[in-house]
Design goal:
- This protein is of the alpha+beta class.
- It has one domain (3-115).
- It contains two helices and five strands, in the order αβββββα.
- It has helices at residues 16-24, 100-115; strands at residues 47-51, 56-59, 66-70, 87-91, 97-98.
- The protein has a three-stranded antiparallel sheet.
- The longest helix has 16 residues, at 100-115.
- The radius of gyration is 18 Å and the shape is elongated.
Length: 116
Amino acid sequence: MEQDLYFSKPYSSIHKNDKKEAFYRKEALLMTEPYHCPNCKTNRTRFNLIEQQPKIVKLDANTGDIVSELSAETIEPFHMQYKGPSYKVQCGVCGLLEDESMFTKYAAYSQKKENL
């Protein structure tokens, strides 16, 4: 992953318009917050960051073969562009694969719970 795709300041301090603009450019907003797996509830240190690179293709309906590969500029009128996250996070212990916010929200919740 290239460093220039990420903001250097914490996610919570990024202005709302910057977040929206980064979403449309499909940039990753690497949060500098702790992770905690909500599935196995033990892992706080071992994670896989999976970068998602969409490939726009047109398939043959009968054979499933790729007829053509398209770019964002040559996309056809009824073909939607990918609007998902630039990357996902996978727990290195149990294998749970989710958006990054799932891990950061559970980390915040578990820290709050420990402080009570």
